[in-house]
Amino acid sequence: MRLILSLCNNWEDYGGKAQYVRWGKEAGLDLTSDDDAFFSHATIKSYYKAFVKAVLTRKNTITNVAYMDDPTILAWELINEPHCHSDPSGDTLQAWIEEMASYVKDIDPVHLLEIGVEGFYGPSTPELLHVNPDAYSGTIGTDFIRNHHALGIDLASVHIYSDNWLTHSEEVSHLHFVKTWMQQHIDDAANLLGMPILIGEFGVSLKDGKFGHKFREAFMDTVYNIFLRSWKTGVIGGGCLVWQLFPESAEHMDDGYAVIFAKSPETTLKLLADHSRSLES
């Protein structure tokens, strides 16, 4: 097993970028929106860099190996699902990505580095905006192609949450979106970016009753088959990570997306096992 360690969260879970802004305000800084403060303010950026340095240089207390030297870590992730609504042009977030990618690579030039974006296309590729789930997705400051041209980025990161992105519950349409979304990003990673692609998160929530186990399995099977077909034909390498696998004792953390081994249908578990065997063969 290998770890992809995320260095921050766009959302407030586990503190996220909002916590950095709170620390700044507590220190007396005159800050406006969370976006402007986190991605642009020099002091807030120094807080993030201090945390990054502390994590990358930390020594494992059991093995005495620094994280930056530990092969257990596959890659670093700059920030989970960054959004910068205050600058739809993408310039602010792009500058932050370039600065922080350079900073991480200066400390640890060996490990892989990815951004953590969901994969929305932005102003640099207007011809691809129609691939996004809606018009709004192209105005939140992320830009899949431009973001991944930043020096130091090694993996193209994409998420798939059609249940959350699309307003309707027509299952066939959801699966069609998944196929189009994945194939476009796989092609772009291979032909425009020249890097492996990581489907860093994908899943279906059962929380609100909009979808059930049967659709979740069809969704997962679609994602796996598209990725495996691409992988086996040698088009592009990478990985595909379902959000999220849970042991029975962790149900209190279930956000609706959890696949709980002890309580999931046998068909779901068989699907996961078959996919694992396919990767081994």
Question: TL;DR of this structure?
Answer:
It catalyses: Random hydrolysis of (1->4)-beta-D-mannosidic linkages in mannans, galactomannans and glucomannans. The protein is of the alpha/beta class and 281 residues long.
Characteristics of this structure?
single chain, 281 residues, alpha/beta, TIM Barrel, three-stranded parallel sheet, EC 3.2.1.78, glycosidase, GH, MAN-like
Describe the fold and architecture:
The protein has 281 residues and is an alpha/beta fold. The protein has two domains: 1-108, no CATH class; 155-280, Alpha-Beta Barrel (TIM Barrel), CATH 3.20.20. Helix content is 42%, strand content 11%. It is built from nine helices and eight strands. Helix 3 packs parallel to helix 4 and helix 8 runs parallel beside helix 9. The radius of gyration is 19 Å and the shape is globular. The model has no long low-confidence stretch (mean pLDDT 94).
